[in-house]
Amino acid sequence: xxxxxxxxxxxxxxxxxxxxxxxxxxxxxxARLLDDFGVHYIEGGWPxxxxxxxxxxxxxxxxKLKHAKIAAFGSTRRPKNxxxxxxxxxxxxxxxxxxxxxxxxxxxxxxxxxxxxTESENLAxxxxxxxxxxxxxxxxxxxxxxxxxxxxxxxxxxxQTLAAAERxxxxxxxxxxxxxxxxxxxxxxxxxxxxxxxxxxxxxxTHNDSEVAVANTLAAVKEGxxxxxxxxxxYGERCGNAxxxxxxxNLQLKLGHSCVSxxxxxxxxxxxxxxxxxxxxxxxxxxxxxxxSAFAHKGGVHVSAVMKTPETYEHIAPEVVGNQRRVLVxxxxxxxNVVYKAQELGIDLQGNTKAAQEIVxxxxxxxxxxxxxxDADGSLxxxxxxxxxxxxxxFELEGFKVIIHKEAKEAxxxxxxxxxxxxxxxxxxxxxxxxxxxxxxxxxxxKALEKFYPALKNMxxxxxxxxxxxxxxxxxxxxxxxxxxxxxxxxxxxxxxSTNIIEASWKALVDSVYYHLLKTGADGVTKERSNSHDxxxxxxxR
Length: 542
Prior knowledge:
By secondary structure, the chain is α/β, with parallel strands linked by helices. The protein has three domains: 5-278, TIM Barrel; 296-368, no CATH class; 392-541, Alpha-isopropylmalate synthase LeuA, regulatory domain (Double Stranded RNA Binding Domain, 2-Layer Sandwich), CATH 3.30.160.270. Helices cover 38% and strands 20% of the residues. It contains 18 helices and 19 strands. The chain has helices at residues 24-37, 51-60, 87-94, 108-115, 119-135, 147-153, 155-168, 184-195, 213-222, 244-254, 262-265, 268-278, 300-308, 335-344, 353-368, 377-388, 437-449, 501-519; strands spanning 5-8, 41-45, 69-75, 99-105, 139-145, 172-177, 202-206, 227-230, 296-297, 326-327, 391-393, 396-405, 414-423, 426-434, 460-468, 479-486, 491-498, 525-527, 540-541. It has an eight-stranded parallel beta barrel with strand order 1-2-3-4-5-6-7-8, surrounded by nine helices. Strands 14-13-12-19 form a four-stranded mixed sheet, covered by helices on one side. Helix 5 packs parallel to helix 7. It is elongated, with a radius of gyration of 29 Å.
């Protein structure tokens, strides 16, 4: 077993990925999260390249980190500059970080065509840059850029560049697969060779252009690398960097190395979600270990087995990395899926085979008609409870109209909804406007119901998605509407399907209201179990 040093470059290399962007405040919050998780090094950015990174390093001095060291990133000196006068090296020193990481050229292709200097000049650039930073009391990480391509082009020269970094006093030499095109067997052979030639600790930095970045990292560690670079969620340029959220559990749980404590490892999924939230990106559901689908089971045979012995279809317990098991309910489901899902909701269907089978049939029929419950947890819970429990009827629709009018060519369209609902023995007839027909319907429904159910004031629509299901049918195609709603305590998704987008939206909206009222303990009229929506009358006025 080896102690592995984790070097996170989410805040530098990760931000070079498409759609990834952090404010200075975001970067500071990510740094705190990484430190709390147990990462050893946090690469904060390139202080010589942009004002945002410069501001980060100024404010990072105030961070009270318990575990991690902040690293500033940059390049070796420019070939024509003296080290003491090179702006890039001076910016690295002025960042006042305990660790400095610089990259240098390994590949003769870059030496000759990018830098346009001689081989010996490049070696001097590397050695002098590292030595200068060491003279300033810095811990120096040397990134050998394009190392594997350079090694395959000229083994002798690639090793000479590493020797130059070693002579300069580099604390760690990192072998970089910058283009991401090297295969795991090549990484193994090359790292094994380098290990015999270099006396300082080795690190590995890989990119995912061939979808083997994690495998390449593991191969390098197996051959002696002890310093591992990567990003959270695999963010990075082009196809991304090696994903630390897969590397860490693989090294620790599969290969027996030590990266973080067991307690810290339980925070891995939370870390992945928090970083994606700060990056303003949707979490990647299918990521190993930390994705929402990593321990999701859909097939009935799988669920039946997992209910008895989780190891049958799970390679680790999801709790070890802070994730959780999910059972998906769809037209592929059997009774086991429904029983498990009902159990999560506090409903025991073990002894109610009839209700469980009815729910399965309901789901299969609904999904045949275009519904999908994998991402509609609110609608699924309502469907199960309609069959398995006495059902509360909070209101009944008598009818509604949606009017969209545009008064002039340049005028913005105005949407108005008129709605009539029955609550117990009372009928409420109201109207409301909105910036679209769905918003108008939402406002009118709330207006009609809030005097009966004040808790609706705390509910708000957070997201709205529409998907066309039968594109070949043109404007008469079915659409599926997915609504996300929040109430300050949580969020839930509801779904509706129809050939009419307004009706599909209404169905999802009604489920959303029902879910909120059930969760807030509102009183309704108890009725016989049902699994259908009320009929709807729609009139368009143009």
